[in-house]
Amino acid sequence: MTYPGAPRAPLTSEVMAAAALEPWRAAGPRSRRSAARRPRRREAAARGPGAEPEANEIVVLRRIREAGEDLLISDFWSSALDTINRCLTKHLEQLKAPVGSLSEALGNLHLGSSPGESAVATGSIPGDTLATGSCHWKCVCYGIGNFATCIIARIQLTFLLLFLEKCHVSLDSSFSARPPVLHRVCTRMLGFKQTARSSLLQIPRSHCRVYDPLFSPLETAVLQSLGVTVLSENEEGKRNVGGEPTIFYMLHCGTALYNNLLWSNWSVEALSRLVIIGNSFRGLEERLLTRILQKNYPYVAKILKGLEELEFPQTSQYMDIFNDTSVQWFPVQKLKQLSTDTWAFRDEPDYQDCEDLEIIRNGTQEASAADLSSL
User: Fold this and answer.
1) Any idea where the domains of the chain sit in the sequence?
2) Of the listed ranges 79-83, 103-107, 257-261, 365-369, the one predicted with least confidence
3) DSSP string covering 189-254
4) Does 273 have pLDDT greater than 90?
5) What is the spatial order of strands in the sheet that 308-311 belongs to?
6) % of the chain at pLDDT higher than 90
7) Which residues pair with 250 in a beta bridge?
8) Residue 240: strand pairing partners
9) Model-level pTM?
């Protein structure tokens, strides 16, 4: 029995981590300053003057959960999620590709076992297996910043966690263009009811990779508690998707990071499996001189005619946090219209003559971190 005024049992990091892994629920608004009125600090410079002092793991997990509750009751969250879902629905239809015959469609499915057995056999979580059989979505997050001390970075991380939990692309919407007979056969073979809006796309946290060269040991521990995988090496964005559909979450990152990512996946096959949530490429085109874009970031310049882009909604509450953010993907039809010379150019970026390079190169983390801390 607990008496009034009796001390509560202390919260442990394990308890807070377990709570953070539970589904978020919207809570009533708290009387706190809006995000728009908080310090306008780039997350990479979060350790400068005005940043919050680094707390312990319990406090950081609590702040992340509070940020999630605030996001869920905001108009921005529902609008942004709808924007992402619309893009991913189109992208999923592209991955399925129109089929010419029923036998081709069934050839892409695991017909020798039930959906549950297939998921167990591949080591994945039941319910996370896509209709395309061997096709599993991944998520990679670069440059989220020091979320333990920077409110902007924390809300961006919270958005990512909510996206992994809440984003669903329904079977009905992605199969809507298929002939009725084929639709019925596919849904039966997958074990779904025709009337159900079953999820084809939901990325478990274990399929999410996160990296920032400025992560502190505390932030690494928090991320591991949350169930995501923290990469140990600075890839500089040079990650090839290897045929796996992958969403890259890269908010307010340096242009070189996007350029490196494009170079690492410079083919129709690879780019058609990418979705990027990050800086607007159209915005980059408007802000940078054409000669600078073509010289320093040639892959960004060359891909502008091969992408589709949906802008994030803009609200005053989260203006500083998600400004200039878009969802971008690369339709096969547009990629195939690019010239042969476009694909023949495959030089690895080096940025030797590039001024104001906005990424931390592999092996230079300590020096760059010291420079940022002096801002």
Assistant:
1) 40-100+137-168+204-373
2) 103-107
3) HHT--TTS--BS----GGGEEEE-TT--HHHHHHHHHTTPEEPSS--TT----TTS-EEEEETT--
4) yes
5) 229-230, 208-211, 138-142, 246-250, 274-279, 325-329, 308-311
6) 54
7) 278
8) none
9) 0.74
